[in-house]
Amino acid sequence: MYAALKSIGSYVPSRVLSNFDLEKMVDTNNEWIVKRTGIKERRIASEDEATSDLGYKAALKAIERADIDKNEIDLIICATISPDYLAMPSTACMISAKLGLKDVMAFDISAACTGFVYLIALAKSFIESNTKKNILIIGAEKLSSITDYTDRTTCILFGDGAGAAIISATEDKNEAIVDVMASADGNYGDLLITPGCGSKNPIRKENLEQNLQYMKMKGNEVFKVAVKTLTSDVVAILEKNSLTSKDVDVFIPHQANYRIIEAVRTKLDFPVEKTALSVEKYGNTSSASIPMAMNDLYESGQIKKGDLMLLDAFGGGFTWGSALVRFAGN
Ligand code: COA
């Protein structure tokens, strides 16, 4: 059996937080944000929307487009760093309940912005080992819930949203996900971290007073490693599969920062028109960024059946990975 990506869907909350809105909240300005990041606005979930609500709505679209009955889904995996609940139940379980599924394996993974590439690696293995047949994978984030809106170095970057896909078993090799490479190095953990509310710095008054529950980042250092790793990821997976950038129909890098994407794209010789670019309107949505970008290209007719997509991700951990995925949907 081969694993095939049969559909893509996404959901973004309706509320827009623009750079001009942020100017009123912290000492920043639109020009600085656009010049350094390419971001113009991001979406913010409402108070009563949890990560699973975003993931559920993205999942509905992916299920409908895959043309399967939801009861055929035998595994749900959600990648998130902003789960509904700190420990349990998992966001994947909450999404399964919202879908009305009562007997399905469901769990979360935490791989930060590389979450969607890790999901593809997992789904591929479950299918190739003949363990599961129709897998719903979801990258969903309500990053506004772990963002410090008094910290101008991080709050300008992040947004909320979700993307989902159905990966199904197929006997047709032409539809198969070609390859996935994913890795991590925890020695870089401190550079991008939510230090509080886990077992290391538990939920205690003194930790909350120091805002340890929010994301902290050494932006400059992250930037350098991100460009280097996102580039070497692509070189490695193309070489391993005896391909060049010319064989790729669509390049979908993690949407963290326009300057990072541009640096990687030009080094690797991908034309602009083949490169996904949605950071401008959504900011960095971590595990949701790649499927959201893929969904927008699909909806605008820029991804069609048989196209070879190259996904390229990097995130906290550090984690990183790339995937060569043929679009097997309609
Ligand atoms: N508005 C205005 N000025 C700001 C600012 C903001 N929002 N944030 C920082 N600054 C200031 C700094 O205080 C600094 O001022 P100084 O020179 O007086 O000390 C100056 O701008 C430059 O800061 P610096 O951090 O060197 O900017 P930068 O060019 O590295 O850009 C980031 C900052 C965060 C945009 C950039 O480092 C980045 O994108 N890093 C990667 C982040 C990322 O993608 N993380 C997720 C990976 S998955």
Keywords:
330 residues; alpha/beta; Peroxisomal Thiolase, Chain A, domain 1; five-stranded mixed beta sheet; globular; binds coenzyme A
What does this structure look like?
There is one protein chain. With 330 residues, this protein is of the alpha/beta class. It has two domains: 2-173, 3-Layer(aba) Sandwich (Peroxisomal Thiolase, Chain A, domain 1); 177-326, Peroxisomal Thiolase, Chain A, domain 1 (3-Layer(aba) Sandwich). It contains eleven helices and 13 strands. It has helices at residues 19-23, 30-37, 51-66, 91-98, 115-128, 152-155, 205-209, 219-240, 258-268, 279-282, 289-299; strands at residues 2-11, 15-18, 41-44, 75-79, 105-109, 134-142, 160-170, 179-184, 192-193, 216-217, 250-253, 308-315, 319-326. Strand 4 (75-79), helix 4 and strand 5 (105-109) form a beta-alpha-beta unit. It starts with a strand and ends with a strand. The relative contact order is 0.20. It binds coenzyme A (COA). Coenzyme A binds next to helix 2, helix 6, helix 8 and strand 12.
